[in-house]
Amino acid sequence: MSGGTWRFPGVVRLMSGGAIAETADWMLLVALPLFVLGVTGSPLITSIVFVLQAVLTVAAAPLAGLLIDRTDPWHLMGGTAALQVIAVLPLLFVDSAADLWIVSLVAVVQSVLGAIIEPARPSVAAALVPSDHVAPVNQLLGIGSGLARLVGAPLGGLALGLGGVDALVVATAGAYAVASVVLFARARRRPDAASPVSDDTAALRTLEVDAAGAPARATFFSELGSGLAIVAGDRVLRRLMLVAVLMSLAQGLFSILFVLFVPQVLGGGDVEIGVLRGIQAIGALVAGVGLLGVVGRVAPARLATASILGFGVLSLLIWNLPALTTWFPLYVALFALVGAPGLLAMTAMLTIVDRETPAGHRGRVTSLLFAALTALQAVGTLVGGFIGTGPAFTVSLQVQGALYLVAGLVALTLGRHGSA
User: What DSSP letter does each residue of 356-385 carry, written as one string?
Assistant: First the structure.
């Protein structure tokens, strides 16, 4: 059923163009904080850049979703990638700490522009394939994102280390330019493509009402808030957002607790941290490719539940296993397994959004989902950073795993509509 998903016109172009743009995103995401830290020596200033990116990405989500739904999304993605080429050029004028405002401005603008392309891809993907291929095409996008992270993160550090900011600008601008060319041409919607709930009653809730009680023309602000109205009016989407909140808090905690766990508990260092981070990404890609023929046959609610619960169980196993052994190869194997549930859970959640959302509002709801994931992951990372060491650190490890288990239990309630 799903083995030939990549053969549908536009799928490979969407996956490759998005992955190339995301590779450049990861290069900047890794290199810019390294540059700021190297110039200032201040982790606080470096973290402020991260927080600014997250805050403005979330703030831009409603407008990004509206643009996705009201413009040609292919042209929007290609045009956005072209703007990213221009937006990275000011880094060429950075010479000293006095120019850090330029770095912050570039980081913020790039994160906002990235907030348009990321939710646009799954929204476009559903229009390229029949409904029974929606889950596999979402998984293909996840594989592309995994490749982008695996390639872009080390390339960003390598470009900065070997050639400085100028090399970083050339590499990222080139990647964005290629992505723009790949994404700009519009692919036709298939007549048998996925058609989520066609009832527009949810959208009508966002319209103003005239004196006679009839729905009036939609205003800009009602259109902007219609994604929230649809989520508020749909039981499955409300619970899906709760799942996203819990999962993102847990993922944010995981990202920072893992960095503390390796040296404090396993006795490792930078090499071990790098190995475990890399093997997690590789594990996700291997699982993503290996399970392409499976995800289309599993109800998305069940896939989300199993994946999130699996992540929780694996997290708790990793955190508590040192009581028995700290043998490093065993943790390499466990971290490879941890990579799979995140990819599968995201595939399932995007598929549920596709099925529950009116086609003309898919971009807005998908943008809200990504905004929730970004915001709460940032919160989780900040909370984890404050914990540090001591008893609070030990307790937080268990809380992190428990959050995934709670998210998985909430995902169980998505079944009726989300699994259909």
Answer: HS-GGGHHHHHHHHHHHHHHHHHHHHHHHH
